[in-house]
Design brief:
- With 195 residues, this protein is an alpha+beta fold.
- The chain has one domain (5-183): Peptide Deformylase (Alpha-Beta Complex).
- 27% of the residues lie in helices and 25% in strands.
- The protein contains 4 helices and 9 strands; from the N terminus they run βαββαβββββααβ.
- The strands form 3 sheets. Strands 2-3-4-7-8 form a 5-stranded antiparallel beta sheet, with helices on both faces. A two-stranded parallel sheet has the order 1-9. A two-stranded antiparallel ribbon has the order 5-6.
- The longest helix is centred in the last third of the chain and has 15 residues, at 163-177.
- The chain is globular, with a radius of gyration of 16 Å.
- Its cofactor is Fe(2+).
- It catalyses: N-terminal N-formyl-L-methionyl-[peptide] + H2O = N-terminal L-methionyl-[peptide] + formate.
- Its EC number is 3.5.1.88.
- Removes the formyl group from the N-terminal Met of newly synthesized proteins. Requires at least a dipeptide for an efficient rate of reaction. N-terminal L-methionine is a prerequisite for activity but the enzyme has broad specificity at other positions.
- Keywords: Hydrolase, Iron, Metal-binding, Protein biosynthesis.
Length: 195
């Protein structure tokens, strides 16, 4: 089922999310709904707060990056097939020299800015079968994971841009809060006025 994506300004996007247990109600269905919602919006990641749930759960599917001709064949092959569910994730290490990439967010449609992140991470998490994993990721996969991980920590990519860029985007962000944006996917806005 495709769920509405929560727009910028909703307090749930600023919550440090709670861990869940494997007995969380209808967890498998929730995960499937998150993948459906992400795919419908042409996203590469989606965190539970973005559908209104303050829990430590996010999904990633980097298939669109697999078409980037600038990447090596092995990177493209990996990204084309990388799909993963992260439950109760904890980033253990972020390493390497920060690099810039133009990021966007399904909760912040129409806003894209360069964000600096470290290229290599080690992350501990539970998969969709609630089996514990500790894995290393790099490049685009690491970046998408870091972006979604920020969501479960109550952090948005707009928090990582300069004060000037924040000012330049303030009207766009206000429009999102007021529901004055029209992405081609279902959204829920905090201050939308009736029509």
């Amino acid at each position: 089922m495709i769920l509405p994506i929560v727009g910028y300004g909703d307090p749930v996007l600023r919550k440090e999310c709670e861990e869940i247990s494997k007995d969380y109600p209808q967890l498998k269905e929730l995960i499937n709904n998150m993948y459906d919602t992400m795919d419908n919006a042409y996203g590469v990641g989606l965190a539970a707060p973005q559908i209104g749930l303050p829990i430590r759960l996010f999904v990633v599917d980097t298939k669109p990056f697999g078409e980037d001709e600038d990447l090596s064949k092995s990177e493209r092959d990996f990204l084309s097939n990388f799909s993963c569910t992260f439950i109760n994730a904890k980033i253990l290490k972020e390493e390497g020299e920060e690099w810039s990439f133009n990021e966007g967010c399904l909760s912040i449609p129409g806003v894209r800015e360069d964000v600096y992140r470290k290229p290599n991470i080690t992350i501990e998490y539970y998969d969709e079968n609630f089996e514990k994993q500790v894995k290393e990721f790099s490049g685009y996969a690491a970046r998408v994971i870091q972006h979604e991980y920020d969501h479960i920590e109550g952090v948005l990519f707009t928090d990582k841009i300069s004060t000037l860029k924040k000012k330049l985007n303030s009207k766009r962000l206000q429009n999102i809060m007021e529901g004055k944006v029209f992405p081609d996917y279902k959204m829920k806005f905090i201050n939308k006025k009736g029509r």
